[in-house]
Amino acid sequence: MSAALKLATGSLLIGCLVLGLKVLAWWMTGSVALLSDALESTVNLATAFAALIAIRVAARPADANHPFGHHKAEFFSAVLEGVMIIVAALFILREAYHGFMSPRVLDAPIEGLLVNGAATALNGVWAWVLVRQGQKLKSPALVADGRHLWTDVVTSAGVAGGVLLALVTGWWVLDAVMAALVAVNILWSGWRVVKESLSGLMDEAVPDETLEQIRQAISAEAHGAVEAHDLRTRHAGSATFVEFHLVVPGEMSVFDAHEICDRVEAAVAKAVPDTNVTIHVEPEHKSKHTGIIVLD
Fold first, then answer.
1. 0.70 exceeded by pTM
2. pLDDT of 47-88, one tens digit each?
3. d(CA 34, CA 160)
4. Does domain 208-293 have CATH number 3.30.70.1350?
5. What would be the CATH architecture of the domain defined by 3-201?
């Protein structure tokens, strides 16, 4: 089992435990904010399951119907997670509205907050693990799942603050007000997840830092060629696709041109792991005198 699959499976187990703790906290207190927090955690389970399926699909090798691989499956999972975050926020707003219209005194608020706090701490640690490892493994699904869990941590912190403030002041309507405020923050987080995932589905270019690494690798290892131009990049899950035109002297043999291409491909793959490089070799009269300067 790959590291990404292990993490996705772990998210399911952690999600079940956290949901159980939050439901227990709501049952102990009757807090509408804690109920909303528990509702948000049900989405965590669904999105963790979606991430697991997406990672399994993305790991499949290229085939006749998908010659470029299945990497983009992870972006579909990330989009689904963003949408479900937004749905959870709407559920919270609905419960907050009812709590605002009919505020009630909470039962055992301190005990409930302690239970909810344990769930929050567990979520916070696991969110950090998912984002860190997701970035390391170049897995959009794991990163999105981690950010989703972090919104749950923010939700729980806001809920705890609202319940404590309501307990101190006796204004029990604050329980619902805080839940509504946190729901707005979750809506924003859900939109960010969807936006970032759509960029991958739309074949957005790699970040400027990564692009510069690719350009430097080509420049340093393409000696013997004249220039490289029309560089294009895109990312799909953990894979990065790079293509460009390499201009070589007209009298250069196919063998020598191929040697240059092999060097460049190896250099790019070393600079940016899991990269697929496509090079179109052209004769010297195709030079554009723009693009990447080849170092001697």
1. no
2. 666 666 666 776 677 777 877 776 666 667 667 767 777 787
3. 8
4. yes
5. Up-down Bundle (1.20)
